[in-house]
């Protein structure tokens, strides 16, 4: 998330009982005296109300105003109901009129990444926060610590705390940058990227295949349309009955008795015009006879011999009839180029009479595993080896996307072998994917090989699992060097490779599905990076979407992926999600 604030944001973080509010209350007059205009954001864990029952604003709010602004000569207050979920930190900050402020002080929001002063009193008996929170920029306490380089202030010396805050505000420009950095997880090192930055870079560097081919409808499942589809026919083709019943004229609905002159089944027609006093027995889907435009359902009719009566049923002219072209008229836009053909699209194309479509050619993806310790499955395990699982996970992921797979097997940790193999692969395929060998401290063969082959960047993505990622071009073909750990491989593929492959296949504007669910267990992450835990979501008995993790989250535990039906995405700005709080999930059905 990119959020730029006009003023520095400074928090006070402490366990309850430390006296945060009392300290800030005493500090504020000193700061305003020094000329600061102060905004305060206070987080409350419990439900609160600033309104008084019985007051007009209270009554109007309870009557349904989801935003209630009350104003008078001296102040105004905007109360906004947020029944779905608590508003995001940066969104809340953006509610301030920052033009009118010099600083925003925050009480609470301990788990959000932004600069904070830790308040600590030994007598409260709570642990220190600074060892686990990189965002703490100073400590104000009643004792000293020895293991920290942070500025240390005396919690009882308000003057020195005031001076610190003034100095912080004076360094405004610099601090502003820091806030943006933590909020969107930018860092100074160019090789360190947020998930979104990595995705953007990759997407900007890959292109759709240019070749188009005809494809029979039978073979078109999961291919991408290379043309817009315009309806060549009316759907339905002819006006027909929506019910089993009797067709009559719309200007002849008041009669007690009708003479049944014919019976039409679907696929057949009555070729005479229906006259006043006549009815035609008709089946669902059968064409409406000339003259008739109204159908009375069978359940409302009593027939005897050639006569039918509708027992006084109220009849509306034109009822129970589907008009020609009602679903789709000739010339209507049906699908745009770049649409993926799934079951419903297959059916739609068929209903329009297409036996063949134009699609982009299939994407060819070359695939390698790397590492001397990696052994192909299907043979007895040799000492000091692990079976190659990554190639098979990736084969599955590629199959799902309908790619043509060129399986190049396992590459030994040998620079020359790698150079030859990857060069060969890049000549045959549209994309090359490897796993393993891209993390720091690896036997660096693949890095050496890649350096000689083309322009490859080694990124560290602020995410877990899946921090190392190599991306670049070999022979003008995109190259992905995924990490070695089996879960990291899948998470990296889902986040970086899949969107790129979809774009290369010709799919337009694909977005992964993301929804919110309520955490049923505490989830921890590290501020500044995106955490992708493996999760299981389900509806609870109250019909709420909830999510739990699959348990142990080690990046080598592939079982966690197998048990999961979603990834839980914890954004860089958050380090703890508590039971009952809302968290983003990425459902995986249909993707893995
Ligand atoms: P690397 O990045 O090459 O150091 O690999 C990280 C970890 O992933 C190591 O424990 C490797 O043994 C493991 N690993 C690498 N490639 C594979 C593979 N194809 N299948 C399963 N595990 C792998
Ligand atoms: Mg390796």
UniProtKB/TrEMBL annotation:
InterPro entries: MoaB/Mog-like_dom_sf (IPR036425), MoaB/Mog_dom (IPR001453), MobB_dom (IPR004435), MobB_MoeA (IPR012182), MoCF_biosynth_CS (IPR008284), MoeA-like (IPR038987), MoeA_C_domain_IV (IPR005111), MoeA_C_domain_IV_sf (IPR036688). It comes from the Bacteria. It comes from Vibrio panuliri. SUPFAM superfamilies: MoeA C-terminal domain-like (SSF63867), MoeA N-terminal region -like (SSF63882), Molybdenum cofactor biosynthesis proteins (SSF53218), P-loop containing nucleoside triphosphate hydrolases (SSF52540). Pfam families: MobB, MoCF_biosynth, MoeA_C, MoeA_N. This is Molybdopterin molybdenumtransferase. Keywords: Magnesium, Metal-binding, Molybdenum, Molybdenum cofactor biosynthesis, Transferase. Signal peptide: none annotated. GO terms for molecular function: GTP binding; metal ion binding; molybdopterin molybdotransferase activity. The lineage of its organism: Bacteria, Pseudomonadati, Pseudomonadota, Gammaproteobacteria, Vibrionales. The keyword Transferase applies. Its EC number is 2.10.1.1. One of its GO terms (biological process) is Mo-molybdopterin cofactor biosynthetic process. Its cofactor is Mg(2+). It catalyses: adenylyl-molybdopterin + molybdate = Mo-molybdopterin + AMP + H(+). One of its GO terms (cellular component) is cytosol. Belongs to the MoeA family. Catalyzes the insertion of molybdate into adenylated molybdopterin with the concomitant release of AMP. Pathway: Cofactor biosynthesis; molybdopterin biosynthesis. NCBIfam families: Glp_gephyrin, mobB, molyb_syn, PRK14491.1. Residues 366-503 form the MoaB/Mog domain.
